[in-house]
Design brief:
The chain contains 4 helices and 12 strands. With about 240 residues, it is an alpha+beta fold. It has one domain: Pseudouridine synthase, CATH 3.30.2350. A hairpin with an 8-residue loop joins strand 3 and strand 4. It is globular, with a radius of gyration of 17 Å.
Length: about 240
């Protein structure tokens, strides 16, 4: 029996200095407030840091876990916006997807637009925005594949739409007809690479191995184990 993870009104700090904070967001926590009074990652970051102007540079869906980068100083926001627009911030995800995918890197290139019939969804559309995802299988289970994904563009639901479009929806993704999972949505933002906008330092920001992916049976393939073994849990929590 898989454990069920509830929303947690806290987060792990992966990086924090006077200009930036990288948070490891748990499932069930909004990045932005929705006006209902529910907790949000932005509110928690502002409370923890005492910085009222703290702003997320990226977003994650409420059930997606992992890295969200915040600016803590308005002066660095333009540089971060430029880095995102020009591909200066590289972000990698891991996901468990339905079906077996053969080893070898592949590129998914398909424009994404809004679904006119369902406001919650996005879809592949010739009139949508260009969208590119790099897919690297890490290991194969009997009926699922652990994959690493790198976004070359940052569209809403990009990974979820692209994986569903090629017949391998994310496990736990009911919106895009992925197989059900008591663990929740099996998608995690695990790593970012960027140049610090003030110090010029090259940053590699990485979360620990996510709880939702713990205790999976070993797949056929060893790349997943190398990746998992390189991750350690940060000590700072809130």
């Amino acid at each position: 029996m898989f454990p069920v993870f509830d929303a947690v009104d806290t987060f792990v700090t992966v990086w924090h200095d006077g200009w930036l904070l990288a948070a490891d967001k748990p499932a069930g926590l909004l990045v932005h407030g929705d006006g209902t009074g529910a907790a949000s990652l932005t509110g928690l970051v502002r409370t923890r840091t005492g910085v009222a102007c703290a702003q997320p540079v990226q977003r994650l869906d409420v059930e997606t876990t992992g890295l969200v980068l915040f600016s803590l100083d308005k002066a660095v926001q333009p540089a971060l916006d430029t880095a995102i627009a020009t591909g200066g911030i590289r972000k990698r995800y891991i996901a468990l997807v339905a079906g077996r995918i053969a080893r070898g890197e592949r590129t998914i290139e398909a424009a994404i637009g809004r679904d006119r019939h369902d406001a919650r969804r996005m879809r592949i559309s010739k009139t949508g925005k260009p969208s590119v995802t790099i897919l690297r299988p890490l290991g194969v289970f009997d009926n699922a594949t652990l994959v690493e994904l790198e976004l070359k563009t940052g569209r809403r639901h990009q990974i979820r739409v692209h994986m569903a479009a090629i017949g391998h929806p994310v496990v736990g993704d009911a919106l895009y007809r992925g197989p059900a999972s008591a663990r929740g949505l099996m998608l995690h933002a695990l790593e970012e690479r960027l140049v610090h906008p003030v110090t010029g330092e090259e940053l590699l920001l990485r979360t620990a191995w996510p709880e939702r992916f713990a205790n999976l049976d070993a797949p056929q393939g060893h790349d997943w184990y190398i990746l998992k073994s390189s991750m350690t849990r940060p000590d700072e929590r809130g």
